[in-house]
Amino acid sequence: MNRLAGQSSVYLLQHAHNPVDWFPWGPEAFEKARRENKPLLISIGYSTCHWCHVMERECFENPGIAAVMNENLVSVKVDREERPDVDRLYMTAVQAITGQGGWPLNVFVTPEGKPIIGGTYFPPEPRQGRRAWPDVVAAIGASWRDPEARARMVAQGDGLTQAVREFLTPPPILAEQKGSSPRACLQALDSVFDEGHGGFSSAPKFPMPTNLYFLARFGYFHRETPDGLRAENMVVTTLRNMARGGIFDSVGGGFHRYSTDERWFLPHFEKMLYDNAQLAVAFTEAYQRTGDPVFAGVAQKTLDYLLRDMAHPDGGFYSAEDADSLPALDSPEKAEGAFYIWTMGEIRSILGDDAELFALRYGVRGVGNVEADPFGEFSGKNVLFESVPIEEAARQCGLGADECAKRLEQCLIKLQVARGRRTRPIRDDKILTSWNGLALSAFALGARVFSQPRYLEAAQKTASFVKDNLWDGSTLWRRWRLGQKDVSAMADDHSFLAQGLVDLYEADYSTQWLVWAEKLVDLALQRFQNVQTGALYSAPADHDPLLLLRAQEEGDNVEPSAASVLAGTLIRLSRLLGRDDFQSAADRMIQAHSAVGNDRSFPVLQSARLLAESPARVLVIVGPMDDPRTNQLISVARRAFYPDLSIIVVDGDRSFWSQRQPLLAQKGLVEGNPTAYLCHDFTCQNPATGPKALARQLGI
After folding, report:
1. Strand order in the sheet with 74-79
2. Pick from 168, 184, 212: which residue ends a domain?
3. CA 369 to chain centre
4. Cis peptide before 204 (omega within 30 of 0)
5. 348 and 262, same structural domain?
6. Does 37 map to a domain?
7. Which residues contact residue 149 at a Cβ distance below 8 angstroms, ignoring those fewer than 6 apart?
8. Sign of CA dihedral 361, 284, 436, 301
9. Per-residue pLDDT tens for 317-342?
10. φ, ψ at 193 (rounded to 5°)
11. Is the same domain home to 298 and 382?
12. The domain containing residue 211 runs over which residues?
């Protein structure tokens, strides 16, 4: 066992038995490199990364290749999910060198940490235009031992470091630089939209919930306009096609990482908490806007998957499930998607008389349904997807639509039971604060929209778990595993958690969550905001002396930027708590970041801009929470999609709200009845004492 055996990261522990003399990220590795005058290898990945597993199996477990590495390098393993700051620094360098990135990420750096050269996956021998890993390592080592070649490498490292610095720490934005806008973002997304299948690329195709989040809000704020209708159409088209595709696990719920093709059919089978949390929000909000039960069903199956397979018993959610698993107990090697795919023989054995109906609906074929399979991984196997509409399946099988739906649902239950007897993929059981903030938002929204007590309980347990295990009243931590917290929290941990707490407040109206969210936001501004520009850094100034620079937050990608989420949360808290300074901080943050990148870089930030530019709408409901009439008023406010509406429920003690919103001190029951006050820019309409009156005011 090597030095990684003492680490808590699941990814690092996967490499603890390698013959490579791995170091974890830390001063010991850099000191050894300086002492022995060797370059370092910074090798970055994560526990559910398919090609990380492949390279480990082919190279890092090979004693001969490990010997070459140990002779020429000081090798460092990094979990990119625990240390996104390290990953972003060296990913930016590799993208500058090669024009592309990905994981595993392998970067050769000087003993000072300056990147020289790097890439992603390397095979053990030359293959498909890729150099053999041992040859690359030997060449790097030989060059470093040659004084002239080493001088060139050091100079290259200096130049690349400067280029990375300029990219990750952009200059202050001038006042006249307005940058992107919501409409420019819409047009940029529209220009790459796939009209046939939805989504914003060809193959491979990622869900990109950050784009959907923005488009839903643009559609709302510009409803009844051609641009607003176009935005909504892009969301609905994408979600409908995703729900039908193999990227959605129709048996167990939840979404796989991405689709390898353009039609959402053949996924890369890993499942990530951050994807599923954000997509649960996207489908729930789509249900609010359309009333389509398909969207509600997908959202609830996704939330239920997280509760069933990804929840810690005490609260909080694990990070990910692997794409690879053993096809059978006696299989010598794991295979991609083995847990999720089926043969026609298995379908017939499990479903009996309903097998043909199921095969018609979900595209199952005797020869398998994966046609583009260059490596033969899925020969004779089937990825389940909605091949024909349920009405067509019913017609072809001579059934009524309702009867057909019931039989298919029973088929899915039988397959889930059968799949439960298979070897599950490995689960990364670390709990990350940032991703749990996203999950908190998803379950809080699910509790509001679907009136499901289990979702509210999950949200409350998650918040309590993070508070008990990753927060000490003044300091937040990033990662918890097996009873131990570690890694100082980053900007995304503060931002995503604060957003989740505001969402939880709007699910149970307990002001304790607002108090904590306010503390987190104040702390985030103090530790991460650039005082001069208003922009947000990813890490605090005192985070890690080994890092070459302190990077500014990047754009919205598969996860939103911490800056985008924090800007939106600042605006919401400003309106809820009367904090004008939060609105000012949000305005500066939006201005600073929206001028960086291209028009598609910050869709969630543009969502915050849309909110900032809309009049403040606050709904105050006064009445006991245990009074059914109060809950009728709350239910009306939850019925539709209102991203610009802040809801305050005053139940009993008014001291909290009187201190923060003096306007509320004048609001009370009308003739003893629970009462709603809808206020626009703090000018309130006539009180509404019944759900019909409130619905009229809200325009329902």
Report:
1. 22-24, 74-79, 40-45, 105-109, 115-119
2. 168
3. 30
4. yes
5. no
6. yes
7. 142, 143
8. negative
9. 999 999 999 998 788 889 999 999 99
10. -70, 135
11. no
12. 199-311+313-323
